[in-house]
Specification:
By secondary structure, this protein is an alpha+beta fold. About 55% of the residues lie in helices and about 15% in strands. The chain is globular, with a radius of gyration of 14 Å.
């Protein structure tokens, strides 16, 4: 399992890729570029034991982006990932990966607390 720091490194890399891309990029392209920039650990590059062909890396990043989406930092629209002005501000404000992830987690918890159960979804993130 990725540490909060590693998840923050993943988020910062995703945000770096999307900076200066006002139209965003396809999520698969973001994941590919982030993988190249970060370099994966052996664990991240491995498949889930019960799901051959499903690498931990993609799932980890997709789940790490849930908080930024709920915080309004990142928009995922039909497979396209777009960094919002708020996301750019968060990237500039939280230069420490752990702090970026902690703030995303805090804002996610706030969103959960403020959102009635019937408005939340259980769908897998894009």
């Amino acid at each position: 399992m990725a540490t909060r720091k590693r998840q923050g490194e993943m988020l910062r890399t995703v945000f770096e890729i999307l900076l200066g891309q006002p139209e965003g990029l396809p999520g698969r392209e973001v994941l590919s570029k982030a993988e190249d920039r970060l370099g994966l650990t052996e664990f991240e590059a491995s498949d889930y034991p019960n799901r051959p062909g499903v690498r931990r890396w993609e799932k980890t990043v997709r789940f790490a982006t849930i908080g930024p989406v709920k915080a309004g930092w990142l928009v995922k629209d039909r497979g396209r990932w777009i960094l919002t002005p708020e996301g750019q501000a968060a990237y500039e404000r939280f230069t420490d990966p752990e702090q970026l992830m902690a703030e995303a987690d805090r804002l996610y918890r706030q969103w959960r607390r403020d959102t009635p159960l019937d408005e939340t979804t259980t769908a897998e993130p894009s």
